[in-house]
Request: fold
Amino acid sequence: MKKEVQRFLFVGNHPCLDLINTQLIVKGEPRDLLESVDDLSLWLMQARLLTASQAKITKVHLHNEEGASLLERAKTLRATLRIVVERVAAGKAVPDSAIDATNQLLAQRPGHTLLVRTKEGIKRRFHSLATQQVELLAPLLESASDLLSSGRLCLIKKCANAACILYFLDTTKNHTRNWCSMQMCGNRMKVAAHYRRSRDKASL
Ligand SMILES: [Zn+2]
Reply:
């Protein structure tokens, strides 16, 4: 079997932040990695929110309008979550509009929560009973409600590179993480700081 290429970034330490991180800056230009419902289905699979067999069902049964509506809803949720993280990372409160928007989506999903064993221990998972393809977003919604109610919003940080728009949950012991990743921003910023220091020294 061909190995699936990891084309999305999973540096957020939380599925909601990884969803937000599907919008990024590449060579100074904004880019959206969720251009089609196939992208969304691949992302959900790589984020382990959808199994390969569920993803196959999506492909077979999803009609054009349903696919477009699913993508639309995922992007609406992403926009709502972006408002939340931008405000929270700036030390502000979660706006009521974001809670209302999430509640509206939560109210539309039939199903129940289950406990499952994972490599990281016992986790809560939402088991959707809906046949509608739109309900494929249920685990993502569960994850959003989990983040908003977790008391961990204060751990959300934006990458310290001003030119980068990626977010992450800083789960390091002393909350000292600054970068989306060392490879992408950490090393680059350190090299730039070193260059500035040596240039300043040379001009003394
Ligand atoms: Zn970054």
Notes: The pocket of zinc ion is lined by residues 159, 161, 164, 166, 179-180, 184-185 (CB under 6 Å). The longest strand covers residues 111-118. The CA atoms of residues 87 and 93 lie 7 Å apart.
